[in-house]
Amino acid sequence: MFFLKNMERRVTLHPSYFGRNMHDLVTSKLLKDVEGTFAGSYYVISIMDTFDISEGKILPGSGLAEFNVGYRAVVWRPFKGETVDAVVYSVNHQGFFAQAGPLRLFVSAHGCGKLYTDPEEVCVYHPGPPVFHEGQK
């Protein structure tokens, strides 16, 4: 399920980037570091906007500036029993493996029910367009 979540993160900026457009650089570094990552129990899909960038504090010994940035992000948290679109990438007699964005999952053959009526029927993945054979159900 997707949520809009207010979050906060510390972003450091190298002294060579100090200047007029530091807030833009902090925002772009935040986007690069956070979008598409796993943050505990959810995945950060996209950052909508930043709403609070603190004044930078110089870190002793390194000269880096540290900013606390508040931002709104679209996050995805998968729940047990949730139906998602996924791409199957491996099938065997025990079940199949699929990928839904960053989430990899396994579905047991016992969880599929009576999917195949013919015990000799084998499910095989072929890249490209679907191939149908004469007599195939």
From TrEMBL:
CDD domains linked: RNAP_II_Rpb7_N
Molecular function (Gene Ontology), one example: RNA-directed RNA polymerase activity
Domain CHORD: 110-137
Name of this chain's protein: DNA-directed RNA polymerase subunit
PANTHER family (alphabetical): DNA-DIRECTED RNA POLYMERASE II SUBUNIT RPB7, DNA-DIRECTED RNA POLYMERASE II, III
Keywords, in A-Z order: DNA-directed RNA polymerase, Metal-binding, Nucleus, Repeat, Transcription, Zinc
Positions in coiled-coil regions: none
Reported function: DNA-dependent RNA polymerase which catalyzes the transcription of DNA into RNA using the four ribonucleoside triphosphates as substrates.
Keyword field contains Metal-binding: yes
